[in-house]
Amino acid sequence: MSRIKELFEKKKKELVSIYFTAGFPTVDSTMQILSALQENGTDIVELGMPFSDPLADGPVIQHSSEVAIKNGMNLDLLFEQTKEMRKSISIPIVLMGYLNPLLQYGLDKFLKRAAENGFDALIIPDLPIREYEMQYKPLFEKHGLQNIFLVTPQTNEERVRHIDKISNAFIYLVSSASTTGAKDKFATEQENYFKRIASYKLNNPLLTGFGISNRQTFEQACKYTNGAIIGSAFIKALEKDNNIKSVVSNFIHSIVKEKVA
Amino acid sequence: MNFKPDKYGYYGEFGGAFIPELLHRNVEELQQQYEGIIGDPAFQKEYADLLRDYVGRPTPLYLAKRLSEKYSTNIYLKREDLNHTGAHKINNTIGQILLAKRLGKTRIIAETGAGQHGVATATVCALMNLDCIVYMGEVDIKRQAPNVARMKLLGAKVVPATCGSKTLKDATNEAIRDWINNPEDTHYIIGSVVGPHPYPDMVARFQSVISEEIKKQLLEKTGKENPDVVIACVGGGSNAAGAFYHFLDSPDVKLIGTEAAGMGIDTGHTAATLAIGTPGVIHACKTMLMQDAYGQITEPYSISAGLDYPGIGPLHAHLHGTKRASFLSITDEEAVKAAFLLCRLEGIIPALESSHALAALEKVKFQKHETIVVNLSGRGDKDLETYMNKMNHEQN
Fold it and tell me: Which long-range contacts (CB under 8 A, 24 or more apart) does B266-272 make?
């Protein structure tokens, strides 16, 4: 059974998923942050592969990507740094990034190395379902890597059900029509949207992302979905303090009530 | 050979719609509706009336006698510089604003490089009483100040793009992010034949009025509706797409696009995408683009803000790949020289962008009997400061 499936079998509520950008704040911080996240009870990690033009991201993640690229982060280095990660890291890790760097690297080679290093799935925001199904699906299947799709408030029921059918890990529920970035709370219309999606009783678990920044938004998201993904707020915390261990510990515990692990 | 996109927006291997799910509904709505709306006779009439009475079309096709003498051939200038707002950009914004109204949108966003598309968008928004937000790179805001002032005067809000190279690419990123954040009420008027399907095709259709008129005007003037050569500059490539459009299926018409070489294609300061680029995905479109070994998009450079773009429309990538059109790289210096020449020979001050097309006249040998059409896409008022600096520099 895949690591992601196993996790959702074991734990159905309040899953904490953290996004961070590889190579930020420093080029060597990737593994340190991964280890600290695991130690503090993070359930899933989304590891961002920095891109020069991250269209779906707000200013915080854009900035972290810019810094990471300047720091010298690239796909070869990332695969080198994470070569032995499965010796110490057992939680699922999803690679998240934009399509162009993967095409330039060679999608086949990229997926092969990702699978070899023990990554569990991919999130590629600018690889839409149509293009995925038309051109790239066989490659993902060849390497046994799941592609995770997004659902937004504008996604209609038919399309949500189609996404559910072709997904085999979890569905990424985008909390609102926006680029990534922290928000303080969710409005009623977002709650209604969460309820609408929950009412479909989908086969795949749901994780909510975009705009989760604190305990309040985390708990609201968890009311209707299996957990939440936090990115920008975590990156902001990393920006403020260079002691990775304490930043991660303080951040995770500001989101969840008690130590999960 | 086919130069129309398939139903998914592919010109051969280039095109498509690599959009985040967040834009799916907006883009799908456009994909499903644009052909029906544009094909509607009522739309066509409204569009044609505005082009005639408001934009001032048809624009003249002018036989440039002294320029022709210099190059010993017959050179016609398609005077897109004489359009209202000073460039071809308004052909597209008129079309898209009418489309946006039919889609019930109330808020318009746009990106702009040289500011010509921004001005053309601000203009039609004033005309139609719609909110207008224009994203423009911080660098471009400085070097195209007159157009920034025009947009503000027309009631548009100009928002600086402060990331990356702070030019057209970054302005486009910001406009796409705005659209993601405002999916219900907003229409994004892309200014070139770039972006996700259906934009490259939609913008090419709105610009195709250029070649439609060239055919009619040439027939009147020469008795033949096809020229031997059509020359146009290419950044994203909208004026070239419009000037080439009705000649694409006539292989006897030679098509030449000119890219901005900046300081030279090997200097690292260039925007000549086809000369040094490789296939990839930029702004939701698979096309040729300038990138490093890891697929990070390279910051382009050109003296001309309108050509300062690291990608190119998928139609042009396809025309290049199939060799239906040839593409030349023109340096800053060559473009400025061509601009000065046109000023002195014909009394026309061309935009820096269009000067890249004029510079091709120095590089290609023409026969005495041939008919050459150069698309003069815009006028040079916005570039006076750059021209004056160059002129003073030459005199010193």
Answer: B269/B301, B270/B300, B270/B301, B270/B302, B270/B329, B271/B235, B271/B300, B271/B301, B271/B302, B271/B307, B271/B308, B271/B309, B271/B310, B272/B329
